[in-house]
# Entry
Amino acid sequence: MNKLGTVIGFTFWNKVRTKAFVITTIIFALLVTIGVNVPYLIKLFTGDDGNKETKIGLIYGSQSEIALRLEQFAASQPKAGFKLVKYEQADEKALSKDIEDKKIDGYLQFKDAPAGQFPEAVYTSKAGSLDMGLQNALQSGLQIVKTQYITKGSLSDAQVAALNQPVQIDAQQIKGQGGTEASGKGKQTGANYVFVYIMIVLFWMTTMMTGNMIASEVTSEKSSRIMEILITSVSPLTQMFGKIVGMFLIGILQIGIFGAVIAINVMLPHNREAFSQLNIDINQLDLSVLLYGLVFYVLGYMLFSTLFAAVGSMVSRTEDLGQAVMPITMISLASFYIGTFSASSPNSMILKIASYIPFTSPVSMLIRVGLGDVAMWEVGLSLLILLVSIFVFGWLSAKIYRTGVLMYGKRPTWKEVRKAMQAYKI
Amino acid sequence: MTQPLVIDNLFKQYGEKTAVNGVSLDVKEGEIYGLLGGNGAGKTTTMRMVLGIIYPDGGRIQYHGKEYSSELQHGMGYLPEERGLYPKVKVSDQINYLARLRGMSAKDADKSLRYWLDRFEVPEYYDKKIEELSKGNQQKMGFIAAVVHRPKILILDEAFSGLDPVNVEILKSTVKELRDNGTSILFSTHRMEHVEELCQRITILHRSNPVLQGNIREIKQRYPREQIVLNTIGEVTGIEKIQGVQSVEKRERGYLIHINNVAAAKEILNMAMQQSEVEHFEIKEPTLNQIFIQEVGESNE
# Structure
């Protein structure tokens, strides 16, 4: 146990003090800072445009009734974001000139249509297109005008207003399903969603980063031949798990740093406002989700890192490492994508299956716990499978590690490893 | 008293190939035991089995009368043939780390490291990284890593290879000092002159088999003395007529005489003293080098 602590300490301090670690951490912290500030920046850039109303030339022409109604609507909606300028006739030259002179940004005209039918509207501008906000505003305005135009006073104003009201769908969850609900609250809250998503990304990132670090560390110990001394000083199992835990602490440290950076940035006054608009309340976060998240996170990390250590021990040179860790990278990518693609449908079959497969279960189960509904026994079973497989793969990895660290030369095949294991009587 | 290290009929097989075939030896307290052999003779495999890195397929190894256990690792030091140290880690960090892994407290480890750096007169390396040091100095650091925890049993695999003569002398005197303090040292090399200087007893391995074993002096006595070096001021004639003399080579300052009977030596000396003044007379015993070549060469045929 004492030795384990020594290995952990050595692994941790040696990595933390390297330039590479310091630099990557700073770069990531900067990226995170930028990421957090994106909502504010977007607001900053679009905010300028928001103050300016788009001036639209409205050509009465033959459809003066519609044009009039639209103008009335626009007058009743001062915040619609556009202002109408009246033109009696479509005189293209004059209109073009007005656009050039910036009197108007574009003009709207109606095509001819048979009586009783609503005509098509055409918007002409320099850009030849409508931006999203303006299009929505014009469309909803015209929709109302259309309703008025077609019903032509056969409906009361109240009825027209009722027609224009959009249909509302409220989602509700079944209550009291035999304790399946850990929270009792609605689950698909913004906070849970964001948390689950962050956990998945963090899980994937740290597993890949620290996993690769573990593998390359083991390989470099092998290629510098210090392994022979290490292996005579401390058991391979202690050595391997010391390294894994040490690297885990580094990962946690990094996450902690990023977390602090995020927290500081969110606390800044300009961001607090931007985030309050996103409607995310930290208090909505489910404590059980947090807990499950952490448990699955730690266990998933353990599982992947033992494999990384085993692979690292089979390779003699760092150059060969990339190729050797490929299969693990693939598995972890698969688990990541199953997670992210299924986040919107947390009760899908693929996610259910994936949540019992050791390598995909940390991510999948986290989504099911955080966003779907899942029974206690399901979580328990998944945890049990994960624990057993950690034990099995840990044991196997330790054996491979023990054998691999003494094998030099080209990357051994599985057959050779098995043979060597027999030869070394491990 | 039980011997620090007893190897009994050790046997190891890698697949089809036998790596070590029936090696037996014992190392006393305060003894340097030489393990000789060409490349691939099984020296490193034997040492690895002693260290518990790999397990023997047959035979026994006993340490102070006990079987191998992980506690014993604290009492063993190992300098591998390829000096293993972290290239990018400071000398103090890694040697203290290794010492602590072998059961030393951080304070003791540091004290011991500083003692050894002073011993090699390089205290300034304490804060240097291994990759900043020359190869010879890296090897010294490797040696310190092997002895920093004051092991009872020290295993040196080609300890002096790649060192300049000055450093060889420094390391040699250190090894002797450790021996005099009671450390049992198992020492492998293919440089015979080191063995003759350091070891009392040796085992020569050839192609996994022990071909020659025992006290160096006894081994040498088993081989006939065949050469006499005779340096005189003036010329000596008629040596070749003495019974038992095979040939006489004229050298710069005297003669190298090949004999097949040691009894001839006395007559040669008499004759030389009558004819001239003798500066140097020596009946040369066979060097280990010659014995080694003879043994290994014979079994090659």
Observations:
- Residues 165-180 of chain B form the longest helix (16 residues).
- Chain B has a mean pLDDT of 84.
- Chain B touches chain A at residues 13-15, 48, 51-55, 57, 70, 73, 76, 78, 80, 82-89, 93-94, 97-98, 100-102, 145-146 (CB under 8 Å).
